[in-house]
Amino acid sequence: MKQIISVIQQKGGVGKTTLAVHLAHEFRLQNPGMRVVVADADPQQSAYKWVTRGNANGSNGVTAVLVAADGDGKTLRQELEAIQADLVILDLPPAIESVSLRAALYADVILVPVGASALDIEAGQAAISVCRDATTMDKTKTYLIVPSKIRQSTAAGRELSTVLSSWGPIAKTSIGLRVALADAATGGHGICDFAPNSPAHQEITALAAEVAELLRRKANGSAQTAIAS
Ligand SMILES: Nc1ncnc2c1ncn2[C@@H]1O[C@H](COP(=O)(O)OP(=O)(O)OP(=O)(O)O)[C@@H](O)[C@H]1O
Ligand SMILES: [Mg+2]
């Protein structure tokens, strides 16, 4: 059964695309033969270009498609259904507009990257309210807040999980501000190929394991029950 992870966040530049592409490569690495597709609903096409650049450089088999070309996501469901994949990671534009709302509704797991600054935190709340609506409508799906671009050397970075604790489930893994995660995009790589076993790769591996567990729970129809226990 095909599963969908949507990465949503109103705030621009918080790391949605970076997270989507590195997770896609990590899932493919961990599950040889799994058809992992990055679906890019952002008119900037950053994820699509990243992945297709990697395909030209012989990367590990993740592919990419463009979706929601109409910009409001009206056909998003049909486009997602048409993708031949075991796992689709859907990268969204920096806005909580129609396409993001639909992406949340159609996802098995919604990821919400949030940065540590006050502006990031203010802007992040809109995405959480979308997630709450989507998970209220379908109690088997879940969302996960992912601390993103975190500097552990700052108090704001270290304390983000506590600050966000009322927002819902927060990933145990924070994604640090790590140059390798950005540099990997140049050649179209995932961090698993670009800097294997680096601290950046270890974070992506740990986050992928958390997300994989949520996907398993969703497949079993028990996401929120399991999280609550
Ligand atoms: N964890 C990270 N460490 C270092 N740099 C990062 C990290 N995540 C993202 N970046 C960098 O921050 C910038 C924005 O990242 P990205 O494009 O992934 O964000 P986004 O949320 O998808 O942005 P947009 O809202 O414009 O789509 C890029 O230059 C990217 O390389
Ligand atoms: Mg992006």
- CATH homologous superfamily placement: P-loop containing nucleotide triphosphate hydrolases
Total separate domains:
1
Q: What is the total tally of β strands? A: 7
Give the averaged pLDDT, no decimals: 92
Q: Supply the CATH class.
A: Alpha Beta
Which parts are unreliable, with pLDDT below 50 for 5 consecutive residues or more?
225-229
Q: Between the first and last Cα atoms, what is the distance in angstroms?
A: 26 Å
Order of helices and strands: EHEHEHEHEHEHEHHHH
Provide the gyration radius in Å.
16 Å
Q: Output the structural class.
A: alpha/beta
CATH topology: Rossmann fold
Task: Give a list of the ligands.
Answer: adenosine-5'-triphosphate, magnesium ion
Give an overview in words.
With 229 residues, this protein is of the alpha/beta class. It has helices at residues 16-30, 46-56, 76-82, 98-106, 118-137, 155-163, 179-183, 191-194, 199-219, 223-228; strands at 3-7, 36-40, 63-66, 87-91, 109-114, 142-150, 175-176. It has a seven-stranded parallel β-sheet, sandwiched between helices. Helix 2 (46-56) links the parallel strand 2 and strand 3 (63-66). Helix 1 (16-30) crosses helix 2 (46-56). It starts with a strand and ends with a helix. Residues 225-229 have low confidence and may be disordered. The protein binds adenosine-5'-triphosphate (ATP) and magnesium ion.
